[in-house]
From TrEMBL:
<dbReference type="Pfam" id="PF00503">
    <property type="entry name" value="G-alpha"/>
</dbReference>
<keyword id="KW-0807">Transducer</keyword>
<feature type="binding site">
    <location>
        <position position="272"/>
    </location>
    <ligand>
        <name>Mg(2+)</name>
    </ligand>
</feature>
<feature type="binding site">
    <location>
        <position position="46"/>
    </location>
    <ligand>
        <name>Mg(2+)</name>
    </ligand>
</feature>
<keyword id="KW-0479">Metal-binding</keyword>
<dbReference type="GO" id="GO:0001664">
    <property type="term" value="F:G protein-coupled receptor binding"/>
</dbReference>
<feature type="binding site">
    <location>
        <begin position="266"/>
        <end position="272"/>
    </location>
    <ligand>
        <name>GTP</name>
    </ligand>
</feature>
<feature type="binding site">
    <location>
        <begin position="291"/>
        <end position="295"/>
    </location>
    <ligand>
        <name>GTP</name>
    </ligand>
</feature>
<dbReference type="GO" id="GO:0007188">
    <property type="term" value="P:adenylate cyclase-modulating G protein-coupled receptor signaling pathway"/>
</dbReference>
<dbReference type="GO" id="GO:0003924">
    <property type="term" value="F:GTPase activity"/>
</dbReference>
<protein>
    <submittedName>
        <fullName>Guanine nucleotide binding protein, alpha subunit</fullName>
    </submittedName>
</protein>
<dbReference type="InterPro" id="IPR001019">
    <property type="entry name" value="Gprotein_alpha_su"/>
</dbReference>
<feature type="binding site">
    <location>
        <begin position="360"/>
        <end position="363"/>
    </location>
    <ligand>
        <name>GTP</name>
    </ligand>
</feature>
<keyword id="KW-0547">Nucleotide-binding</keyword>
<feature type="binding site">
    <location>
        <begin position="42"/>
        <end position="47"/>
    </location>
    <ligand>
        <name>GTP</name>
    </ligand>
</feature>
<keyword id="KW-0460">Magnesium</keyword>
<keyword id="KW-0342">GTP-binding</keyword>
Length: 444
């Protein structure tokens, strides 16, 4: 081969290599991005998926809206049932009033008699209503009566003992004096019937409606001061986040012609029990987004998705720092989320996977800080109730879970039920992935 021929064949070979490399890159770019939404139960994964549908797709189909209608009504029944069950578990009498909200002699014997209960109930409700209208936010009012002292260390994830102040002792003593579980009156009767009703009977098909009587019963139940007090202690037992919203919109939701709004759908709750895959095209890049169930029983299904994952959005309900797990009342929810996060980021399948951490429910977190001190649940926290300080404490806790010094974890503070805020966050996450700015996203 002459010198000229040799040079020419090397030039051709290089040109072919360059062409092959660019073709490989082009094909890789065309390959859909595999994105997993992971996190523990009720952290907000499905809500983020709903937002993706609203932002990057055509939103909800009429059939989906109809399904959401049924689940919203089911949510309503479930919330009332949960509260009715907890009224007895926490020994709270219907019509309960705290000693400081009514001018009465605490030693005066109170016969467990319906009229008396009703009188106290309406008195107390007026008080409750006044205090609700005085407060800036319904959630603040919900939390402001919740006083917890003497909570010990969460070592091992448990929020162990807690001594409630006089309010719960007083509730328990009134509970006995009012007749305990057999308390008389239309609201206690309704509570008992809800408590006994199996959830499976709350089926709501397309043409089924809530009766006018049921709406009145729900309203009377919700407005009862004892139920309001029980609601104020809901972080002790786990109540759907949407409870207050549903109760406030009871008459609209209960109307026969009710069609859920976008907010109703975003705030509704339906536990995920099967892995779902949704495809989106965002600026010419195809995404395969997988949503999974986050409760303990669901997590064993996650492993089937672990191959070739480009990115994981790990969602943590940071507002749940004062709550225990649904599945295990001895484990704090944020501690559980941290443990799961640790096992995901240090998993061998995700060495080259980008991990994006969403500290979600930031709206509720901000509200809770002033009424539910972080140090009551995380004794190592020595800071103030300032948002920046508190969130940094939790962020550091999650960053420290990463044992790979080469890995960078991108994080966002999110409010998944707010479309505007979520759009900004998701745009930034997708832009990062799409620009193949992999290092900045923590992706290799
Ligand atoms: N206030 C508020 N509520 C939220 C936020 N994110 C989610 N929620 C509500 O929290 C509840 C649980 O959200 P989901 O999206 O169902 O949680 P999940 O992670 O999919 O739960 P599993 O399917 O059990 O794993 C729903 O009622 C949501 O409306 C948020 O940022 N703020
Ligand atoms: Mg879900």
């Amino acid at each position: 081969m002459t010198y000229a021929e040799d040079t020419e064949s090397r030039r051709i070979s290089r040109a072919i290599d360059t062409q092959l490399t660019s073709e490989r890159r082009r094909l890789e770019a065309l390959r859909p991005v595999k994105l997993l939404l992971l996190g523990t139960g009720e952290s907000g994964k499905s809500t983020i998926l709903k937002q993706m549908k609203l932002i990057y797709d055509t939103g909800f189909s009429p059939e989906e809206i109809q399904t959401y209608r049924s689940s919203i009504i089911l949510n309503l029944f479930s919330c009332v049932k949960t509260l009715a069950v907890q009224m007895d578990n926490l020994k709270i009498p219907y019509g309960f009033i705290t000693p400081d909200t009514v001018d009465s002699d605490p030693d005066e014997p109170l016969p467990p008699q319906s009229n008396n209960v009703r009188r106290r109930s309406s008195l107390a409700f007026d008080e409750t209503r006044q205090s609700l209208s005085r407060s800036k936010s319904p959630v603040i009012s919900r939390l402001s009566t919740y006083v917890v002292t003497g909570v010990d260390s969460y070592g091992g994830g448990a929020r162990k003992g807690c001594n409630y102040t006089l309010q719960s002792q007083d509730a328990a003593s009134q509970y006995e004096r009012f007749g305990g579980i057999n308390q008389i009156g239309s609201i206690p009767d309704f509570g008992r019937s809800m408590k006994a009703m199996p959830l499976s009977t709350f089926g709501f098909g397309k043409d089924e409606i809530i009766t006018a009587q049921q709406i009145d019963d729900f309203e009377g139940f919700w407005n009862d001061s004892g139920v309001q007090y029980c609601f104020s202690r809901s972080s002790e037992f786990g109540l759907m986040e949407c409870c207050e919203y549903l109760m406030k919109n009871l008459r609209r939701i209960g109307a026969p012609e009710y069609i859920p709004t976008k907010d109703d759908i975003l705030l509704s709750r339906l536990k995920t029990t099967a892995i779902s895959e949704t495809r989106f095209k965002i600026k010419d890049v195809e995404y395969r987004v997988f949503d999974v169930g986050g409760q303990r029983s669901q997590r064993k299904k996650w492993a089937s998705l672990f191959d070739d994952v480009n990115a994981i959005i790990f969602v943590v309900a940071i507002s749940s720092y004062d709550q225990v797990c649904y599945e295990d009342h001895s484990v704090n929810r944020v501690v559980e989320a941290l443990q799961v996060f640790k096992s995901i980021i240090n998993h061998s399948a995700f060495v080259n996977t980008g991990i994006i951490l969403f500290l979600n429910k930031i709206d509720l977190f901000k509200i809770k800080l002033n009424v539910s001190p972080v140090s009551d649940y995380f004794p190592s926290y020595k800071g103030t109730s300032r948002f920046e300080e508190s969130i940094e404490y939790f962020l550091e806790m999650f960053r420290a879970a990463n044992t790979d010094p080469e890995r960078r974890i991108q994080h966002h503070l999110t409010w998944a039920t707010d479309t505007k805020q979520t759009r900004k966050v998701l745009d930034s996450v997708c832009k990062c992935i799409q620009e193949a700015n992999l290092k900045d996203c923590g992706l290799e």
